[in-house]
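note to self — DONT lose this again. spent like an hour looking for the file last time. sequence + predicted structure for the chain T wanted, 170 res
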Amino acid sequence: MIEQDMSENLVKTIYLGIGSNLGNRRKNIEQAKFKLIQSNIKINKSSRIYESLSWPNPNNPKFWNIILEISSNLPPLKLIDICKEIEIDLGRKKREKNAPRECDIDIIDYNNQKMKSRIILPHPRMHERNFVLLPLYELNKVWIHPILKQPIKKLILSLSNKDIRSIKQI
């Protein structure tokens, strides 16, 4: 008989970031949400859409980004596989790193878990990104970074004025 860790079956609170800067950005984001639901992933909350400059090349089309709070009992690697399948379904192709894309889905935080394997949790640069921090704050004003142990408000205040001024809600 195989013993199973009971925590494997518990539903986890997870934050996903979805972004798009190619094609119909709103439609890409909405289709990504629909495909997550089709994959039996429950969306608890969705932030508003935020528009930000493309990084690292601000001359590329602007990104539209949201953060979702989801519930799932999927392990992180299975969840990221589903997210990558959805990106491909929505037209994402292999391009150079940080190139414009139809859809990008990242796991921002997986139940405050820390992981360094095929994926790094929490997302390694999330604390530096206005398009992650502001919509995440909209969903959870008391969220604390699992590694830095910093409240989200403090992380937002550590952004440059330029970063804060260069993002807007749609």
